[in-house]
Design goal:
4 helices; alpha+beta; 241 residues; DNA-binding; eight-stranded antiparallel sheet
Length: 241
DNA sequence: CCGAAGATTGCCT
DNA sequence: GGCAATCTTCGGG
């Protein structure tokens, strides 16, 4: 790890220790609100980015129709069937990553989706990462990790991190305890965002009034894609590889 | 095998 | 507010 000349933390907001594995060895509905105020740190050759979690969602495995593991184990969701404290990352919409932290496998597999956070270290790096994708928008600081795919991009988390152990102190990607726990009175809860099944369950938790919390969007079915061209082949011939 | 949905986001009207 | 982008994964035929 990084050598320090004294015991004084160089960055107070990133000096807390990793959460104990037991923290995650509980049902998702208990872990989720407790994750608010906790910090995800990712150290890469580019530098360090830390995000304080402000919005999360609980998924309850095979007891939850909205969970990726509802219908059992597959190659994609295998990590959720493993030990708690590990990272489950999935790829969606052909372009986005979302990250979860695995919890107690009471119902076969469970996890908490990290929906949003506030970047508390490495703002310039997070801004640079986000800016790469944006053609006509300059990201505001509060938007850097506002939404699950943005959070992953700000932290440079992708499929290569699927299965990473977030409670290993030596891991570049770690989940740290909250320096100042969020009082229960400041936590709001409501329905999860963008899911079609079990859409009414209030399993989304966020810090009340936090500007980094993503806007709620109800599930909206996408209309069928325009059908492939049927008609004569305009190329009129074969195309050599 | 193939069709369709998807724990989203950004940009345009 | 609407819709395209973009492709993996899953489940049904």
């Amino acid at each position: 790890m990084t050598p320090r000349s004294s015991d004084a933390p160089a960055h107070p907001e990133t000096a807390t220790e990793v959460l104990p594995r037991d923290f995650f060895a509980r049902p998702s509905l208990q872990v989720a609100p407790d994750l608010l105020g906790c910090v995800i740190v990712h150290e890469t050759p580019e530098g360090l980015v830390a995000v304080m979690l402000t919005e999360v969602e609980a998924y309850d495995g095979q007891n939850d129709p909205a969970s990726h593991s509802y219908r059992g184990r597959t190659a994609r969701n295998a990590v959720m069937f493993g030990p708690p404290g590990h990272v489950y990352v999935y790829f969606t919409y052909g372009m986005h990553f979302c990250m979860n932290l695995v919890t107690q496998p009471v119902h076969g597999s469970s996890a908490v989706l990290l929906r949003a956070g506030r970047v508390i270290a490495g703002v310039p790096l997070a801004t640079a990462r986000r800016s790469r994708r944006l053609a006509r928008t300059i990201p505001r600081e509060v938007d850097l990790a506002r939404g699950p795919a943005r959070l992953c991009e700000a932290l440079a988390v992708d499929l290569s991190h699927d299965g990473a152990d977030a409670v290993d102190p030596a891991s570049p990607l770690r989940a740290l305890a909250s320096a100042t726990p969020v009082p229960t009175a400041e936590i709001s809860r409501g329905p999860r965002v963008g899911i079609s099944r079990a859409a009414d369950l209030p399993w989304r938790f966020w810090i009340t009034g936090e500007p980094t919390v993503s806007p709620y969007r109800a599930y909206a079915a996408r209309r069928p894609r325009t059908k492939p061209v049927t008609g004569p082949d305009r190329e009129g011939g074969t195309i050599s590889p």
